[in-house]
Amino acid sequence: MNLQCPIPPTADEVVRLGHGSGGEMTQRLIDQYIQPVFSNPWLSQAHDSATLPWKPDQLVFTTDSFVISPLFFPGGNIGELAVYGTVNDLAMAGAEPKFLSCGLILEEGLPLKTLQRVLISMAEAARNSGITLVTGDTKVVEKGKGDGLYINTSGIGTLIREQPIDPNRICQGDSIILSGDIGRHGMAVMACREGLEFESDLLSDCAPLNGVVAQMINAGIEVHCLRDLTRGGLATALVELAESCGKTFILEESKIQVSDAVQGACEILGLDPLYVANEGRFVAIVPEGASKQAISILQEAAAESACGFIGTIEQRNCAQVILKNSLGCDRLLQRLPGEQLPRIC
Amino acid sequence: MKYLKEYRNGENIKLIAAEIQKVTTRPWTLMEICGGQTHAIAKYNLQQLLPEEIQLVHGPGCPVCVTPQEIIDRAIAIAAMPNVIFCSFGDMLRVPGSDRDLLEVKAAGGDVRIVYSPLQALNVAEQNPTKQVVFFAVGFETTATANALALSLAKQKQIDNFYALISQFLVTPAIQSICTREDCRIQGFLAAGHVCAITGYRQYRSLVKKHQIPIVITGFEPLDILEGVLRCVRQLESGRSEVENQYQRAVTKTGNTVAQDLIKQVFKVATQQWRGIGEIPASGLVLSDDYSGFNAEQTFNLPALSISENRGCISGDIMLGLKKPGDCPHFAKTCQPQQPLGAPMVSTEGACAAYYRYQNQVESNESAVSNSTNR
User: Which of A74, A304, B112, B244 sits most deeply, having the most CB atoms within 10 A of its CB?
Assistant: First the structure.
């Protein structure tokens, strides 16, 4: 479905400070650009808060902020990220995403056409993931005090199953399943931001994960833990989980899929794909006996079939992540001390 | 991924490792010159595949590590100036100066940008004609080529707001310097393949002859490194000392003569200070007279600098192969990537960073397990 704003902006129309005044210009921005795109009964209440139907004992709540340059990158844009990021955080808790809030921080001078493209993407992303945007806020900062557009989204969802999905449920002997190849989002954004030209087209993996997670849970798989791989990549996510549950994760490097395009770009820049950001990948930690079924569901859902088993959980004296390479040698994965910086040569 | 997967193939690597085991009869100490090789050795834990008799030690081939503190301080002073855009490779941003690093200058409002090549910095200069754009030109012969190209283009295009802060090193004089030290314990070298892709390897013949020490030009993948070790050990075990080229897919005897000519045109050879090691004659490059107008050090009115080098860092001993990172009393204690005492702990090619990232904690965790079991 392609959504179109009824009043498309002209090329030279930009965000002005008055759009954040709370007065007539703000109302016009909401009426012309936001309401038509996200129209639904809760948003139409036009109240300070949205009043929503709910079962109070199953509430799952999350928030995230999105700051990215450039706003549009191969395979996605900040609007899709802002919706899918929050949807995926809900999904990782085993929740069905229900309602979304959206805070827009607009920089004076942002072309309204750009804003409109982002809003339309957000609406499509919300529709794709079955979440409804029910409340929001808009502020404008002076030119030079923002990167065009920042977005905060908060989301609430309802647990699909009462049993929580939680790092504390990770058990010795569990299997670690990775939902696809890694590093696409980080390298696509970096290539685009820095004007790097690679022979292959690198596209972000930005996507909603709630559908496939729901399939796994509804199929009766006893999912112990889920974690989406965002900043810090696969390695950081697994280190965090290992520390949360106090167990040792043993990974097989040869099972972790990295596309040639991502691997090549990482080689050139001296980056480690294990630490490169993703926006549509997750790990599922499931009992050993359930791994085959989980992989089968993932394979059916994924456009590409790079998902699969990558390791197991062991009970040792340390909370750590050990990567076994093809030589049979071990490498300990740790958090990076800061962001990955490209090397000199 | 041709030229990548085959050089990381486990079966082939195990075959070479087995061959090394077979030919080794005595202890040998080999130095890998390049920090990239050090990181590959640590990342793949290649020492685990080698016989105990073979010890790999790390050479002075990390450009970030050998850049003198004084130059880092100058970079920081320039980057903090108004109207300056300071462009640098990412590695240099975390290297500690006397009182702060370039990332802190950036956080304080300095316009510090990470670039991937000097040509990118030149583009920044063209796009910002009212700003003074300074490129931090550090590294060995590999980066000297690209840096020379950028400066040559800047001259051709008459870009008058582009400057370079130069910290360029030459590898061969450093090897020569190591060989002539009384405390030298190196018996064979794995030379840096990418440097030799520019320089060729003719220059090593006189070194080998004079010091009777094998030099094997070696690449950066696990298979490359183990092949380099094998060739070196074979020479040592049979009493030979020759120059061998393991990295034939990139290196020829004469190297890249176009690049060599470009370097000669833009730079001239000079005595160079190496951080932690000291002065080595004819081991650096400075701008030639024709390019002196691009010299950032001469252009900017730098404040008097009070250099404060951390005396606790033993980077010199590590880069000369005299000590290993684990021998340093500060390693992984008061010196960590977040709070480094010296450049080898922050650079992506630094030996201490390699040990910290890939090995230290495996070792410490293993000992923790072992201690726990003993209890």
Answer: B112
